[in-house]
Amino acid sequence: MKKPIFVILTLFLFSKAYAQKCLSNEDIYAMCRDSVSSSVIITKMKYSECCFNLASSDLIEISKNKVPDEVINEMIAQMGSHKRTSSRGRSPRVPKSFSNRRD
Asked: What are the boundaries of each domain within the chain?
């Protein structure tokens, strides 16, 4: 009985170790530096989990790394769509002061 559990646990841990990591700003810099075309980078973003840092200071750094505008726009769109889908299905938070009001 213990052997199947051990095998399943081992497979789970190895699958996590070999899972593809989240696509980051540094990955985009590397692809641009290595002359990967914008269309290929954008396709990669569409089919990958993305975890870009897009604060104003990060956007300046992205531009300094010569990332094309169409790639930057897709980075923003990917993170925007991530925010929309992650909150889907939940009710918006309403302050208690509004929910207890009687008209």
From this structure: 21-86
